[in-house]
Design brief:
By secondary structure, this protein is of the alpha+beta class. The protein has 2 domains: 129 residues, no CATH class; 158 residues, no CATH class. It contains 12 helices and 12 strands. It has a 4-stranded antiparallel sheet with strand order 2-11-8-9, covered by helices on one side. The chain has a 4-stranded mixed sheet with strand order 3-7-4-10. A two-stranded antiparallel sheet has the order 1-12. A hairpin with a 6-residue loop joins strand 8 and strand 9. Helix 4 packs across helix 5 and helix 10 runs antiparallel to helix 11. It is elongated, with a radius of gyration of 23 Å. The two termini are 29 Å apart.
Length: 294
């Protein structure tokens, strides 16, 4: 113990026991970066259907519903799951979400409180193909959260649909899975997300630059070593933990130009070299991270 002991400082926040080189890396990361919670960004969760079998459909079903009633296309949206999201991109699985808010299609009527028969009749009238599709699953949909389904919202509506931020799904955004290994992608295709996925959007920040830092080995190392870790190849990016990640809000113009050039060239692994320079890491610290992150 005496030979291998290392002094660690413990604050009022969560703490972790680190070796001297890990402490040095942690200090540098936190000195240069600003925790995401202090950025001008919003981080939101995906949609909770309560019963994916009814609301998430494949391409063939999408085409059939639109063929039966072209108006169906208005509420069919592409959706990503955690397994689809990769580092810097995603593999679209040809899956789609039936995006149906509470009280749809009368969700903007302030007089409607709770489950509405009026809204259901209007839904059946305006979107008959999708209504009939969901009707086949009415028993399972009605058996969702007993305190809410049929009381707070209709049996055919999504359980949670992002009532306060649903429009942000249609913006440019960074998407990531809660139970994924440091893999972040940029979405410009207005994709929805399933319930264990999150997205980051902003009016002012350079999201692509943020994407480069989030996908770096350095940030992955920080997340697994200094924050929560489930072990193995899977880490958790719970919002209350994830927002502590220190990322520099502004960097030297030369560094920014280098990163943007590498992003355009899709030379993603070379971005790590620039990120190390931004945080001022020494060669031995870089080697330590490289040996720790496969």
């Amino acid at each position: 113990m005496r030979q291998n002991a290392a002094e660690c400082s413990f604050g009022t926040d969560s703490w972790v026991i680190l070796s001297p080189i890990e402490q040095s890396i942690k200090r540098k990361i936190e000195a240069v970066g600003t925790p995401l919670r202090d950025w001008d960004i919003n981080i939101y969760r995906g949609v909770l259907t309560g019963y994916n079998e009814a609301f998430i459909i494949d391409g063939a079903t999408k085409n059939r519903l639109i063929a039966e009633d072209p108006k169906s296309a208005e509420i069919i949206r592409p959706i990503l799951r955690g397994r689809d999201i990769k580092r810097y991109g995603y593999d679209f699985a040809d899956l789609y979400l039936l995006f149906i808010p509470w009280h749809f299609p009368l969700q903007n009527d302030p007089t409607i409180q709770g489950a509405s028969e009026k809204a259901e009749k209007e839904f059946e009238k305006q979107y008959p193909a999708i209504y009939n599709h969901l009707l086949k699953h009415k028993k399972e949909l009605s058996a969702r959260n007993k305190a809410e389904t049929g009381i707070r919202y209709e049996w055919y509506a999504l359980q949670r649909w992002g009532a306060n931020y649903w429009n942000d799904f249609y913006r440019q955004k960074i998407v990531y899975g809660q139970f994924r290994r440091g893999e972040f992608a940029f979405d410009e295709n207005q994709c929805m997300l399933s319930s264990n996925e999150y997205f980051i959007c902003s009016n002012t920040e350079n999201l692509k630059l943020l994407l480069a830092f989030l996908n770096s080995k350095l940030c992955y190392f920080y997340g697994t070593t200094m924050m929560n870790n489930l072990g193995g190849a899977t880490t958790i990016a719970q919002k209350d933990i994830f927002i502590k990640t220190p990322i520099p809000q502004k960097i030297d113009t030369d560094f920014e130009n280098q990163i943007n050039k590498l992003l355009n060239e899709k030379s993603y692994n070379d971005i790590d070299v620039v990120v190390y320079q931004v945080y001022g890491l020494l060669k031995e610290e870089i080697n330590f991270i490289s040996s720790s992150v496969s």
